[in-house]
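Q: I'm writing up a methods section and want to include an example of the input and output format. Could you take the sequence below and give the corresponding predicted C-alpha cells, formatted cleanly so I can copy it straight into the document?
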Amino acid sequence: MIIGVPKEIKNHEYRVGLTPDQVKDLRTYGHQVLIQRKAGEAIGFLDDHYAMAGARLIDDAKEVFSESDMIVKVKEPQIHECQMLKKDQILFTYLHLAPDVPQTDALIASGATCIAYETVTSVAGGLPLLAPMSEVAGRMSIQAAAHYLEKSHGGRAILMAGVPGVPAANVVILGAGVVGKSALKMAVGMGAHVTILDKNLERLREIDELYGNRVHTIYSNSANIERSVLAADVVIGGVLIPGASAPKLVTQLLVSQMKPGAVLVDVAIDQGGCFETSLSTTHDNPIYLVDDVVHYCVANMPGAVARTSTIALTNATSPFVLEIANKGIAKSLKDNQHLLNGLNVYQGHITCEAVARAQGLDFVDPKNIFH
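A: Here is the clean output for your methods example:
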C-alpha cells in the first residue's frame, strides 16, 4: 500500500501523521510512504530522517493525495484538502465531524473511506487514539488557565498555587474522563483548590480514594454545576460524548454571573464546546472576553507541544495504520470491530450514528457493510 503524509496546515499545527520510526516499520512490511517535504521539520523530524527511514519526499500536498492509497494526518482536512480526496481512498485522522457540517458534506462528496481517530475504541471500552491528546490537552489546560489568570491577560490577578497566608485559586473541572483526570493531576500538583464533577460515581470514587481531601468530588447536575462555576476562578470543560457534539453544560446566563476575570478553558471545543459562549480560537489569538470572563478555546491545544504530541499520538495510531496497510481496508474493518467503530464516512454515507444524529443525516450501520 502507498501511505501519504501531507504537511499539516491548520494554524500553528506542527504535528505530523507519522514519525521516521513508523515509516521504517511500514517499509519493513513492503509498503511505500510518501512524506510532503518539511512535514515534520518544525519539531525536529527532518526530511533527511524520513529519507533514511525509506520514505519518498514529495514537494506538494496535491501530489501526496494523488498518489496515495491512504492519507494519514493529524487534524481534520481543510475543505480544499477534502477536495483532493478520491473515491476508494482511505483517510485516517481526527475528524470531529458532529459540529462541522461543511467538512462532513465535503467528505461525503469525496467518496473516500474516512476513519476518525476519536471514535476508534479499545477492548477496555476507551478511546485509545483520543486518549493521548486528551492527556496532553488536559495537562495543558491548567498551564493555560494559570497564565490567563494573570491581570495582564484579563484574569483575576490570582496565582494558581497561592502563597502562605493567601488562598490558592478555585479550579472546577467538568468531567472526570481522560481530560478531567489529566487536568486534575496538574491542578493538584500546582496546589490549587480543586473540585471535579462527573455523573460516573465510580470515577469519582476512584478519584476520592486517590486524592482524599485534596480534591472535592461532586455529582454532576445543573444545580451543582451552577454552584461550583459561580465559586470558580478557573473552569475546565472536559466533557466528551464519543463522536457527538459536546453538551452545553454552562449557559450564557451563568457565564454572565461568574467572577470577573475568571478563566474558562474549553477542551471540548473540537466537538463544539461545553460552554454556550465558546467559539473556536487559535494559538495566534487564543482568548476573548465575554462578560469579563476569559475564554480559552484553542481547537488544537496539543499542537503547542507538537513533538511530545506527535510521538504520543503515533505510538497509538501506528498499529492501526500497519493493520490497514497489511490487510487492506475491507478486511481490516471486518476483522477489527474497534477500527470499524472509527468509520465515520464510507463511500458517500455517514456511518457514525452520533454524527448522523447531530446533523440530521441518514445513518448507515457499518456492521451491515462489513460483516
